[in-house]
Amino acid sequence: MAGVNVPLLIIAFNRPTVLKRLLESLAQHRFKQLFVFVDHERVGVPGEAELVEECRELVRSIDFCDEKSTNFATTNLGCGYGPFSAITWAFGNSKELIVLEDDCIPASSFFPFCAQLLARYRDDQKVWMISGNNFSEKNFDVPESYTFSGYAHFWGWATWKRSWQQVKYDREICLKELDRIPENRFLSEQEREFFITDYRANLLRKSDDLWDYQAALAMALNDGLSIVPQKNLVSNIGLHGTHFSSDKPFFKLASDPEFSVVTHPKTIERDRLYDRIHFEKHWQEINTRSLAEKLRTRWIKIRKFFSDWVRDPKNNE
What we know:
alpha/beta
């Protein structure tokens, strides 16, 4: 059983089936310190209390760690503030952290990858986070074992307290700071317009389901770098999550259990070629939706609105 000395945070809510799969994959390791957050059920959602309790029972049965700290929310904090508060809570007791949401299944190679690079770049303020995701593996061959990107992906990642302390959750503050992103952060005017528009549109949405936009913004404001592995190391199995409700090509990606760090980049600077291709082949393509997808998303929002109204019409007056 491989030992993992870096603290791990698991974030869960109401999906015992995917949480069970994650815990089964984690059981092949022995963790020195484990933090687990499980959100509270929402008011008026039939059957959700039972699902949340199933998740909490799974957490109570975890035995593959030396030390376990649990945070079971007493009210529903939501898909935005819930994860944000969980990460902040865990960093109250650690200086570095690996973070996995319940639907992110890591390859066994993910943990030594994070541990090695957390130690290597611990004191380098330019390096903001370590991602387990490489969504552009088929479009770009990273020549070394990893590269540095200006893009942040959070489906299995690691970071330091020094980085997380720079994240501001408040959306109004974040909206005001959009114009403070350094101009040299963008590879082109097209990229700048794309991301400023995307950030603003999401930060203005009424639903409280964001934390990763705020984290990515903090990295951009500080001109930070994300480490991207040569091979994808984490697979997301939750097709119906917070931000996506259809089968996108970057869900259920294969991950490489045999991967290891063999070579390091010669310099700590943004890989502009990788990011240009990643922008074109990932960001632009996933935001180019068919008419059917747009109509389906609109229908989901309408159905949710009426469902919320039926549960509590006073909130919609």
